Amino acid sequence: MAVDLIGFLGVVLVAYVVPGPDFLVVARAAAEHPSKGRVAALGSQAGLCVHMLVAAVGLPAVAARSPSVYDAVNRPVRRR
Question: Can you give the pLDDT at residue 1?
Fold first, then answer.
């Protein structure tokens, strides 16, 4: 299996540069207090790093071959 490192790094760069819903959370928290903004930004970036690491390691390939992993990853989150 060949890995296209340049393509993967391009996708990671786009994911970091393009603002998403997390940008609004960070902006709202920073408007309340700068320290809240820093904590929100750190949490947002930590989550993005974990997501990119899992994608790089190959969770999609594992989930495609194992129905139990696929079900565990795609289980809906229940909110109150």
Answer: 47
